[in-house]
């Protein structure tokens, strides 16, 4: 359950938790795909299939989980069957198949193949930080996070959020921190960055396991490159890569953090999830507060 990525959204209107949250989430439950259904997406219990509880609240933090099933249909298989049928049509009618008919035929082929298709499952975790008025989604892809937001918006009736971050693009801050060879306290520069040049076809440099205070990095910056991704370490609690749209990726919690729950070894899954979520939310909320300060954010941003 420990989040690996963070797509963070700020509520633009005061948000309070509905008293009947589970009942609202139950309007959009996850159900396995039917025989001819391409995908299914809905809420599931954070505690697993045997539980009917669709959210878990600890203090001012509310954990929610959604599951998605997608039928896997290789494009090559669809196109091969489509080409065969289009060729047979051309031979029979002495002319190519019209574009409109070809499109309809492709839909029929997909419909025909769906019952035999394999399924791919994925789970998206998220939690609402009521105190900080934020929604944090564990997703590296913005499209998947937005899918979750749409699902939650449907259940709640509205979801007034915007992507979290400063008004300026992150590359402005990252480049300045690299030029200064230090991140704002209590952050430290990590060992990863991506630098890009300017222009229509900018050069790109990806640095891993690199001393970001080195002369090599300063040379890239001197040649008009800007930092679009930056590895950071927060107070020996977490390491992560911050991107210029303020997405947090490759989030890793230190042993110092996880060892706080060592006494939960052997506990049942529900108690373990409760303890892990409590600790993780505490750390992530503090991280977001510290990042806001480092980026010069105010309550009005």
From TrEMBL:
InterPro entries xref list:
RdgC
Q: Does the keyword Oxidoreductase apply?
A: no
Task: Give TM segment ranges.
Answer: none
Q: Which GO terms describe its biological process?
A: DNA recombination; regulation of DNA recombination
What Gene Ontology terms describe where this protein resides (cellular component)?
bacterial nucleoid; cytoplasm
Q: Name one Pfam family in it.
A: RdgC
State the superkingdom.
Bacteria
Keywords (A to Z) from UniProt: Cytoplasm, DNA recombination
Report the principal subcellular site: cytoplasm
A molecular function GO annotation: double-stranded DNA binding
- Subcellular location field: Cytoplasm, Nucleoid
Protein function: May be involved in recombination.
* Sequence similarity: Belongs to the RdgC family.
Any idea what this protein is called? Answer: Recombination-associated protein RdgC
Q: Which organism is it from?
A: Aliidiomarina maris
Q: Which gene encodes it?
A: rdgC
């Amino acid at each position: 359950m420990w989040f690996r990525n963070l797509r963070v959204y700020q509520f633009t209107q005061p948000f309070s938790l509905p008293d009947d949250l589970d009942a609202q989430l139950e309007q959009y439950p996850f159900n396995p795909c039917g025989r001819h259904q391409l995908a299914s997406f809905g809420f599931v219990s954070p505690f697993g299939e045997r539980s009917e509880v669709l959210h878990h609240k600890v203090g001012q933090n509310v954990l929610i989980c959604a599951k998605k099933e997608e039928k896997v249909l290789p494009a090559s298989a669809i196109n091969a069957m489509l080409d065969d049928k289009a060729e047979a049509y051309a031979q029979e009618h002495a002319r190519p198949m019209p574009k409109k008919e070809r499109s309809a035929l492709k839909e029929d082929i997909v419909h025909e193949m769906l019952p035999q298709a394999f399924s791919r499952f994925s789970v998206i975790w998220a939690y609402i930080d009521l105190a900080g008025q934020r929604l944090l989604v564990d997703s590296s892809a913005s499209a998947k996070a937005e899918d979750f937001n749409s699902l939650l918006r449907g259940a709640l009736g509205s979801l007034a959020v915007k992507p979290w971050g400063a008004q300026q693009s992150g590359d402005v801050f990252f480049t300045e921190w690299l030029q200064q060879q230090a991140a704002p306290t209590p952050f430290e520069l990590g060992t990863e960055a991506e630098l890009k040049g300017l222009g229509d076809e900018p050069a790109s440099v990806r640095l891993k396991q690199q001393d970001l205070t080195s002369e090599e990095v300063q040379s890239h910056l001197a040649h008009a490159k800007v930092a679009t991704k930056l590895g950071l370490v927060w107070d020996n609690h977490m390491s992560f890569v911050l991107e210029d749209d303020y997405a947090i990726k490759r989030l890793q919690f230190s042993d110092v953090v996880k060892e706080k729950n060592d006494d939960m070894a052997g506990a049942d899954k529900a108690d373990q999830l409760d303890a892990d979520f409590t600790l993780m939310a505490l750390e992530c909320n503090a991280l977001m507060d510290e990042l806001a300060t480092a980026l010069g954010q105010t309550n009005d941003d």
